[in-house]
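Allow me, if you will, to draw on your knowledge of protein folds for a short while. I have a record of one protein: its chain in single-letter code and its fold written as discrete structure tokens. I remain grateful for any guidance, and I place the record below:
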Amino acid sequence: MRIILYIVWALFVAAAVFAMIHALRRTRRQEQLMASWPKVQATVTGSVAGWTSGGGGSSRSRRFFPTYQFTDPRGTLFMGKSEISTAAAPAPGSLIEVAYNPANPNESLQVSPAPRTTLGCLIPFFAVFALALLWFISAFPLPS
């Protein structure tokens, strides 16, 4: 019975490591793209409402993804939607910093340290959680 618990633990750890590596690669790829892209102040035009997944036993909560518009140096107006959500609806007319692809200004991303900060917090959390689960499995009394 204990071997099954160890297998489930190993699968959980493998899935968590895979998910974090995927998220880290995606964040790095976006940061590398944005490093060479010009940055401009964009005006928030509204937001698109969504919901969190409610995973981990937490309740679902409403999140807002800002929509924005900006102009390139030639004065052409472009619109975009942020991938970074906020708990409160952003005020229309407020400014956010975005980086845009000069070859295709329709491709733009909001500049924010949030993804890196989130990953920096999640990695130690999952490491401690995995160790706590491993300890729990080894200390868990099993019927004979």
Strands lie at 39-51, 62-71, 77-81, 95-101, 104-110. The chain has two domains: 1-36+113-144, 40-112. Residues 40-112 form one domain. The two ends are 10 Å apart (CA to CA).
